[in-house]
């Protein structure tokens, strides 16, 4: 049974007249009659009662009409969905983001704008460290990722596009001696205890801090580790040490903690968009275009 047979049947059922149905379908009346007879033979059921004066649906025909209409509607919907998918307007898009990304107004702008422009796309968001995102994108369990510079080797099939630059801030107790300064050099942190993400957390900030401190002539002493930025900030408030985080985290306000800019010009981090190098998905292309356009607008 083909969809055209269902269309022929529905036209005759709605017109109850073979000649008018044939005109509606832009085919000859004899071929239409032959197709209906072939459909009845395939189904093993008589769909119409015909005589020289009238055409009527049989009970089997009336029941078959409901199903035929549903099937045709579903087929049309499937075609619409396929066309939307080809234009990047339907399907599922799996996107990762680092712990600091939601604190940037840019991220909210991109996600809200994408949802408005592509309401038929299912957007699935996952909070993951940078290296874990890159592995997932390479392994095709995720499509895109908002990441920080990995500061280490990563899959060679990944393309990284810079969206924005963010300064790094020093996080320290309000009573700390360095809090009196408006801007602090990396070298001023020598001898301090650091609260950091675990080394194996997959973040880019961990190796970056070590690189910056080494360039300033010392190796940071890690006194406490925590897997969440809010926990790191809480441990700083508890006097467990100082920390360095992307400036976007200064939106987390906590008693006993203050944030200070770092004077060193290299104390910055990029927000990058990660994707597979040879990606051909229209869904991915549409999101990348929107994200890059929003980045060009600038802002916070």
Characterise the protein shown here.
This protein is α/β, with parallel strands linked by helices. The protein is 40% helix and 22% strand. It has nine helices and eleven strands. The chain has helices spanning 3-15, 18-25, 29-43, 59-86, 105-117, 130-138, 205-215, 229-237, 282-296; strands spanning 48-50, 55-57, 91-97, 121-127, 144-147, 158-173, 193-196, 221-225, 243-246, 257-261, 268-276. Strands 3, 4, 5, 6, 9, 10 and 11 form a seven-stranded mixed β-sheet that branches. Strands 1-2 form a two-stranded antiparallel ribbon. Strand 3, helix 5 and strand 4 (121-127) form a beta-alpha-beta unit. Helix 5 crosses helix 9. The longest helix is centred in the first third of the chain and has 28 residues, at 59-86. The two termini are 59 Å apart. The model has no long low-confidence stretch (mean pLDDT 93).
List keywords for this structure.
300 residues; alpha/beta; 7-stranded mixed beta sheet; 9 helices; 11 strands; 40% helix; 22% strand
In total, how many beta strands? 11
Q: What fraction, in percent, of the residue positions are helical?
A: 40-55%
How large is the count of helical segments?
Answer: 9
Encode the helix/strand succession as letters. Answer: HHHEEHEHEHEEEHEHEEEH
Instruction: Give the class from helix and strand content and strand pairing.
Output: alpha/beta
Q: What would the principal axes of the Cα set say about the shape?
A: rod-shaped
Largest beta sheet, briefly? Answer: 7 strands, mixed
Q: What distance lies between the first and last C-alpha atoms, to the nearest angstrom? A: 59 Å
Q: Which ranges are low-confidence, i.e. pLDDT below 50, for 5 or more consecutive residues?
A: none
CA radius of gyration: 32 Å
- Determine the oligomeric state from the structure: single chain
**How confident is the prediction overall: mean pLDDT?**
93
Strand content of the residues, in percent? 15-25%
């Amino acid at each position: 049974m083909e969809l055209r047979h269902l269309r022929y049947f529905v036209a005759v059922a709605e017109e109850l007249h073979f000649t008018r149905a044939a005109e509606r379908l832009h085919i000859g009346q004899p071929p239409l009659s032959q197709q209906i007879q072939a459909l009845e033979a395939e189904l093993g059921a008589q769909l119409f009662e015909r005589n020289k004066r009238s055409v009527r649906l049989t009970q089997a025909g009336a029941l078959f009409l409901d199903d035929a209409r549903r099937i045709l509607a579903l087929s049309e919907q499937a075609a619409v969905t396929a066309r939307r998918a080809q234009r990047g307007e339907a399907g599922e898009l799996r996107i990762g983001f680092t712990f600091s990304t939601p604190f940037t107004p840019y991220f909210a702008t991109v996600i809200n704008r994408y949802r408005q422009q592509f309401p038929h796309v299912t957007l699935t968001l996952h909070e993951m460290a940078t290296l874990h995102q890159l592995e997932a994108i390479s392994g095709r369990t995720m499509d895109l990722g908002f990441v920080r510079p990995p500061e280490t080797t990563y899959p060679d099939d990944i393309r990284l596009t810079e969206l924005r630059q963010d300064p790094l801030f020093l996080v320290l107790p309000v009573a700390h001696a360095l809090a009196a300064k408006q801007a602090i050099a990396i070298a001023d942190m020598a001898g301090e205890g650091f609260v950091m993400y675990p080394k194996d957390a997959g973040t880019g900030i961990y190796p970056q801090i070590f690189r910056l401190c080494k360039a300033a002539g010392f190796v940071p002493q890690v006194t406490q580790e925590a897997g969440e930025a809010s926990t790191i900030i809480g441990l700083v408030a508890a006097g467990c040490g100082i920390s360095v985080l992307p400036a976007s985290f200064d939106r987390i306000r906590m008693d006993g903690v203050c944030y200070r800019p770092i004077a060193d010009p290299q104390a910055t981090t990029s927000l990058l968009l990660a994707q597979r190098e040879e990606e051909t998905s229209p869904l991915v292309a549409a999101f990348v275009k929107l994200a890059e356009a929003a980045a060009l607008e600038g802002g916070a």
